[in-house]
Amino acid sequence: MASRIQIPATKYPVERFTLANGLRVVLSPDRSAPVVGVAVVYDVGIRSEPEGRTGFAHLFEHLMFQGSENLEKLAHFRHVQGAGGSFNGSTHLDYTDYFEVLPAGALERALFLEADRMRGPRLTEENLRNQVDVVKEEIRVNVLNRPYGGFPWLKLPPVMFRTFPNAHDGYGSFEDLESATVADAQGFFDRYYACGNAVLSVAGDFDVAEATAMIERHFGDVPARPAPVLPDFAEPDLDGERRESYVDRIAPLPAVAAGYRVPDPIGAFDAYLPFSVLAEVLTDGDASRLVERLVQRDRSVTNVGGYLGFMGDEYQVRNPTALLLQAHMPPGGDAGKVLSTIDEELDRLAADGLQPGELERTQARMGARLLQGTDEVLGRALPMAVLELQRGRPELLNELPKLISEVTAEQIVAAAATLRPERRATVEVKPGAGA
Amino acid sequence: MTTKTLPDLVPDAELTLPRQAERKLPNGLTVIAIRRESVPLVEVRLRIPFGRAPLAAATLLSQSLFTGTATMTMLDIAAELQAVGGGLAAGTDPDRLQISGNALVDGLPRTLEILAGVLTGAAYPGEEVVTERERLVDNIQVALSQPAHLARVALLKRMYLTHPYAVQTPAPEDVRAVEPEALRELHADRVRPGGAVLVLVGDIDPEQAIDVAEKTLGGWTGEARDGDIPPTPALQPGPLLLVDRPGSVQSSLRIALPALTRTDPDYAALTLANLVFGGYFSSRWVENIREDKGYTYGSHSVVEHFVAGSALLAAADVATEVTGPSLLETSYELGRIASLPPGEEELEQARRYALGTLRLGMSTQAGLAGVASVYAGFGLRLEHLREHSAALAAATREQVAEVAARHLAPSRAVIVVLGDAEKIEGQLAALTVVERSAQ
């Protein structure tokens, strides 16, 4: 084994300030390419949507693109793309993001567009009905018409959790979506889309003083509205193994996913971080423990993956969350056997510890992936915005490679020892299509 | 309510290309190295000509390439790459075998050593190959349950008939019949440096990186076999092909239209015509069937390039009950772009989008590596970005209209729809001649 490789960290500058109306701003200039990334994140997600309104946070994300105070429907898309840029938004358990990446000369335009919809989207009956239809097609294409649709991110939470915020379907039922009203949307906007509940971040090619002036110019007159009180979504840990299964009528082969609760990602970050490394020790590539055992040696699965957070957003999620393992199996595969082999491998790791070099190489690969992620302007603007929103620490993005490289073998072993069957929730996909 | 005005765009600075170097090694391998020092990583892309390689064996070869050499097991290869923050993976398309990955920049020499070991000494050990073979079969089974995959399979067959591009995914039974020895033979025959291009992009000195590549990959030798594929046949419009997928809750609408190669003088105009029709979110097609009518989550059209020919492909997954109306609106939009020039502002918007996305694509190491590698596969270099940008900037409304009339007219279209035939055949037959797929 070669001598231990140095894991480099990034040094992207971070400037933070708060406008008089309460909007928090993060700037990270980098003149190496003539592009900018702009992100606005709101501190509301799937966990905050009301009962009887499943899927509402995501539906509302769609409505934010349907025109605003000074912009007709379709104008947002045309102005971003007509400036040479791309845009999107996404709804997570704990936040909703909106973002653009554009040639640097379009920065002020992007700020104008985001400020305009922060002042108020055009919430009309026609737009609502149109986007309910679009979201239904989104659910059909991603869940209903596709094998393994929603596995495991929509299928595991109801097994693992007992409270509505944590357990319900974040894409929503057609019934709930269809009964949504403009008044619901206005109420949701009023409650959660306050500038005091948002973070704006900009990364890439700009001058800090100029960008600050632009931000004042466009966001300064957004009326001050405070953030709502952040709810506590905590739930007790599992007190016994929970196993469920369902038939996927179009899936040809069996699959299984298991989740274990992990420490509070924010309140107990030091305890949480080793789980992030553990997931990679278990599943990153052919040299990882579970791939080597389950795929190569036993051939009991065709692939296996492990990660933190139901949406893979491990450093952008609040408590409670989970370490997930998921595997697809060959025809006739036995989920019970796969789970007991996982238990065996976790026991072995907990009892015998890591092999020489195993931790270092995993950390090196994680470091490289972090670097690749931050090479994109949005790979900085987006996580920095969420890290500011949830922790007030956007600079954590620069610190992650070092923090990961400091995780010790003892911490990995201790983390592995907590992944016990009695703390596990699993969901099994039974193939409904002829396999 | 005060009215606010949209801020002007600050014009883009001139396109600047990064520092780069290129050398053809004595073994026939071309190495292109590009400096972008944004993060201490290096991206690696190797494309080896693989046209006319037997499909099942080529696909399995790509999945088994890293399963061992005489001196390293699969585990050794994976662990040693990981140790330098690296990872490599292989895949195939009808034209080539591609190896892609990245590593921490200090790990470039080790990554290339491991790559060289695999290129010159992949062993295809029996046990490991059998495991990969079963996994590949399982993955193909899963693909065959996905509407997007099935629709593409049907479209390719309908477009390319007996041409080698007609089938791009092997049948499970053909994969099962591939023995490790066949992989060793195919590797000896085709995994050769002649005509191959290695692209390295990152925090590197280009000349020094090429020196490292020359030193480590110089021992990879052997004559490449001619893998040229004949030009693709002209599309033959005909009845709409309906593929039954009982129980489908959506219909997958797929359309192929003729296109132009990247170096055709009219290609920039076709790029713009495609954008206006359906190539980006602010296109007529999306605004019509998504934002106005709510028939779909997304529709998209794109020019797809293979070495032996290019085609324009359009795709939308629409609700079963509006399959007919979706086809009607699609034909209407194709007819409109083919018979009327685009609006002035509409064209400018598409032009700025095309120019802007070229720059965005160059703004990361991975993006640059992708562009440089794809271009190299067509004999082009990064300088082509400058030429293509100039052509996009210069294309007129008349040129766009002319090329759209030739390529986007609905009468040129090859159409495949996959869905619940019982529910959609009548809707489609009201609009065009429908032929049920034989399968």
TrEMBL record, chain A:
Coiled-coil region list: none
Keyword set includes Transport: no
Domain Peptidase M16 C-terminal intervals: 180-365
InterPro entries noted in UniProt: Metalloenz_LuxS/M16, Pept_M16_N, Peptidase_M16, Peptidase_M16_C
Domain Peptidase M16 N-terminal: 24-141
Pfam families, alphabetized: Peptidase_M16 (PF00675), Peptidase_M16_C (PF05193)
Organism superkingdom: Bacteria
Keywords: Hydrolase, Metalloprotease, Protease, Zinc
PANTHER family to which the protein is assigned, alphabetical: NARDILYSIN, PROTEIN YHJJ
Entry similarity comment: Belongs to the peptidase M16 family.
Protein name: Pitrilysin family protein
Organism ancestry: Bacteria, Bacillati, Actinomycetota, Actinomycetes, Micromonosporales
TrEMBL record, chain B:
Organism of origin: Actinoplanes oblitus
Peptidase M16 N-terminal domain location: 58-169
Domain Peptidase M16 C-terminal: 178-352
InterPro entries: Metalloenz_LuxS/M16, MPP/UQCRC_Complex, Pept_M16_N, Peptidase_M16_C
Annotated signal peptide: none
Protein name: Pitrilysin family protein
